[in-house]
């Protein structure tokens, strides 16, 4: 099956496009949700995302256990939304990012399900003024590079438009 990455900034349209891409696959669909509702704004955001999904979708809450959730989907296509929230959960919880990222890459390689992954590009803005912000930006960049190298297709999303991303091949 195919693996696809949608990478973009906040409110770029990447989640909507990823949802549409996943829904092109027949059969049941698994939505692997990494967000946690710690405040009212996040509760509203999660509610809006849930309202966008049809009855074909089964939601799996996996704020930390994303590799295990991917491995646990036995049928249908999978949508992961999103890697950067998962990374935030790992970092704020003091979990080993390198080891868990390796677990995630292994789960992606092992699945025979169609897999659509959403992640944020956070390295195109200003340098964060706080050490945790800089560490997050750096870890997100490393994770996004590793995931992009592991999937079949990557798309960069800006203003709801997509640009295909391809590996650089020097002449």
UniProtKB/TrEMBL annotation:
Pathway: Cofactor biosynthesis; adenosylcobalamin biosynthesis; adenosylcobalamin from cob(II)yrinate a,c-diamide: step 6/7; Cofactor biosynthesis; adenosylcobalamin biosynthesis; adenosylcobalamin from cob(II)yrinate a,c-diamide: step 5/7. Keywords: ATP-binding, Cobalamin biosynthesis, GTP-binding, Kinase, Nucleotide-binding, Nucleotidyltransferase, Transferase. CDD domains: CobU. InterPro entries: CobU/CobP (IPR003203), P-loop_NTPase (IPR027417). Its EC number is 2.7.1.156, 2.7.7.62. Catalyzes ATP-dependent phosphorylation of adenosylcobinamide and addition of GMP to adenosylcobinamide phosphate. NCBIfam families: PRK05800.1 (NF004469). Belongs to the CobU/CobP family. This is Bifunctional adenosylcobalamin biosynthesis protein. It comes from Sphingomonas arantia. The gene is cobU.
């Amino acid at each position: 099956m195919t693996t696809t990455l949608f990478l973009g900034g906040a409110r770029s349209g990447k989640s909507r496009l990823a949802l549409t891409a996943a829904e092109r696959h027949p059969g049941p669909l698994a939505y692997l949700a990494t967000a946690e509702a710690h405040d009212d704004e996040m509760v509203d955001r999660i509610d809006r995302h849930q309202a966008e999904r049809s009855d074909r979708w089964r939601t799996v809450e996996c704020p930390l256990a994303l590799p295990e959730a991917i491995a646990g989907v036995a049928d249908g296509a999978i949508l992961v939304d999103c890697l950067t929230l998962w990374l935030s959960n790992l970092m704020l919880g003091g979990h080993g990012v390198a080891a868990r990222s390796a677990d995630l890459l292994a789960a992606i390689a092992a699945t025979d399900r169609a897999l659509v992954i959403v992640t944020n590009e956070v390295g195109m803005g200003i340098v964060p003024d706080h050490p945790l912000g800089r560490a997050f930006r750096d870890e997100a960049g490393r994770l996004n590079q590793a995931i992009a190298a592991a999937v079949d297709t990557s798309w960069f999303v800006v203003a709801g438009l997509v640009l295909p991303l391809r590996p650089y091949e020097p002449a």
